[in-house]
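Notes, Module 5: Reading structure tokens.

Key idea: the token line is not a picture. It is a compressed description, and you learn to read it the same way you learned to read a sequence, by spotting repeated patterns. We will look at two proteins. The first is printed below with its tokens.
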Amino acid sequence: MAGFVRKVLKSGLGIFTSRVLGMVRDVLVAGFYGVNAVTDAFFVAFAIPNLFRAFFAEGALSSVFVPVMSDKITRQGEREASRYLTSLILGVSLIIFLILVFVFIFPESVVSVFMPGYRNDPAILIPAANMLKVLMPYLFFISICALLSGYLNIKNSYYIPASSTALLNIAMIIGAWVGYKESGDIYFLCYGVLFGGLLQLAGVLIFAVIKGYRPVFSGGLDPEAKKTFHLVLPSLASVGINQLNFMMGRIIASYLAVGSITYLYYANRLFQFPLGMFAVAVGTVTLTEISVSNSKGEYEQRDMLINKAVNSIFAIMIPASAGLIILAYPIIDMIYGRMSFGRSDVEATAFALQMYSVGLLFYSLISVFSRIYYSDSDVKTPLRGAFISFILNVALCFAFMKPLGHAGIALASSVSALFNGVYLYANIKKYSYPIRRDINFILKVAASSAAMTIVVYYAGTYGLNVIANIVLGCFVYFGIMYMFRVNLLRVIR
């Protein structure tokens, strides 16, 4: 189990490296360009290749091929595993080529689907379409990078794949700065995305070769590759629907006040920070580890890994969610509140962050539960849960946005995540969380989080600096957990 902790820490550290640079990027973009219709257009254009990226980089194809790849390395050797991976890369490249052709022919139509509220505004629609044409090739770079990252995970390399997005963020930072110097031309930010994606792919490819990957073109396509694409179709829909929950929010937000899309983007970026740094790291390692356990028939080890993953999520995400809700305004103000990002922008973004944070725990559990299904090659159950939650999300968006505006869209996403998390847990076969055994642990986490929340709230009302308040909150939470004689490192070891 110590190995599991090390792998989570490596993956988490890699994601942390990337997310810190991503935050620097967002701070500069917010300060340089502010909140307006042009930033709404950029974030929608940037979200479109990222939506497709989610199919390959954040669960779907990676979750299906990692168990197969692990089994091939164990049973057939390195060459057959490389042939299988090469076949997948060729297949994905063809699919992406067809997507790119369609987008380049009909860019305005594609943008109109994702920004219907601006459909009759050519001053925004045309620039967004032009930005999309620059941004879409990024999809190819990041999708192939995702396949190679899955290979590296199997080879026990977690930091490099998780931190590779740092190269993208550095390129975007440079692009944002150049664009600002060139009279606020946001197209330079788009060029930064394109060049950063190329750097990211190059870096991951180099390390994959170092770890043993060699492209194999002889012997034809691997027969398992075709089977993988058949399996991935429902998984594509499952992951795609989860991402569409966020995208649908932006689509609906295009009918609200100018800047609503940008508010949701910045709030979601901060919401994704703890989610990506810890929950995604735990989910990524869990998928690899339980896939290996399944291949070896070590089912008790599999259940123990799942228990550790769930308890880790509880221990970190419950206090993180409470902290984000209480400190949303000072955090947003500290990070974004400067230059072109005004006071009203801070308030609007903080409100959205609070509503997203309500669902942090549930999104984290989904990250773990969905990978349990993928490790067993069951992609239909997550698809059903994701589809129902998507329908619920759309209905709640319309119900909540009238009283809460753009923040209602964020709250709808959180409530739908709650449903999806419960649905996935209820349908897991041959596993049940040991609630009777671990109820004391959960109560201690809840009590420590509640005490932390109270202390942080009152410290904030007395004007304590937000960074000092975060440190105080961590001290209170971990201190009380220590008083309860809970060793958090032992919990996940």
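Here is the second protein, with the sequence above and the tokens below, as before.
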Amino acid sequence: MSPKLPIIILGGGIVGLTLAQALRKALIPFQIYERDPSLATSDGGWGITVHWALAALESCLPPDLFARLKDIQVDPQQGIKDTGRFLFLDLATAEPRYVIPPSKRMRISRKKLRALLTEGLEEEIHWGKKFTSFETMEDEVVVKFEDGTEVRGSLLVGADGSGSRTRRALLGAEEAKLYQLPVRFMGVTVRMTPEEVRPLRDIDPLLFQGCHPDTGAYLWFAMLSTPEVNGSSGGGEYYEGQLNLSWLVKSAEDEVPVTARARVAKMKQMAQPFEKRLKKVVDGIPDDSEVLEIKLQDWPTKKWDNRSGTVTLVGDAAHAMTMYRGEAFNHGITDAARLSERLAEADLNGGSFEDAVNTYEEELRERTNPAVLWSRQACLDAHDLNNLKPDSPLVSRRTILKK
């Protein structure tokens, strides 16, 4: 029997919404509380790659929504014939140093995915709700918000990202603190004509990454949209790409500049030793472009007191990790699938949610604690091409889930 009180999901990002869709399929009541005032206020992010968690995502979504993922790919045509490979290049030559074993994948727009996942959940999403604290009593939890309101639920699920307030409330500020890696990261969206993008798509039509052997500078390039997707087909066609650079911090001069123009200048300076095609795309970044800094922080999963199964975590709140293995999203979706499965089993068989949460968290810790550390090592290895080995987590096969 479903609980009389709903499950409270804190965070209306991709993982929180995926969990909500899975609970909706299982007929388990829920409510979502998101701090942003609306979907339109989110910056949306760049692209994301779903690979080994595709089956988990499918299990969470109604068939019609899952079928529509193909329509929000950054390049639907490439999605049809994609090789699934991940290239790691020597940036001095643009030749592959490693070809990461391929897997079935989809490269999709983060912004469009989030919008898709809200469909059918309009009545359950409460916007502009900033979480402040919670209290537990027997088999329920009371969640309080900055505007003075509070709600009661059977389970509180923190899906509120790497800086999770839920995690801090569970563990305390020190235990919940993120670890800062000694690496800095900047990214920009670039617009290119078909002629400008062709040399990059000749390397790989979807995405690639690499490191320069002398400077240790790391580059990631991925398609964000094609004329078919951005509506420019038939005239004035253009492509959009995600262009990121990162580097090790060795002195104060290695910190990210404050102004956008200085950030662009730093990217161009770092790209001077790159192979000519790669150098050209960085040199072509307009000087007034918005360049984002991404903080490279992580949090290896720890055991927390789930207050007798009334509070738990999913996604980046439970296992913040760097993007160098491309697995954070895949683990988050797997969290949503595993938690919803355990709760649905308890609901169907008359079991306790406490046992369901405990079982979920045990699997979560076993799966994600090492994954965070592998991604941390991958980040460091990404900036040392000369010592990069085939067994590095940067270029080895991605997670294979246990049955």
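Summary for the second protein:
- The domain at 7-50+109-179+299-381 is CATH 3.50.50.60 (FAD/NAD(P)-binding domain).
- The chain has a mean pLDDT of 93.
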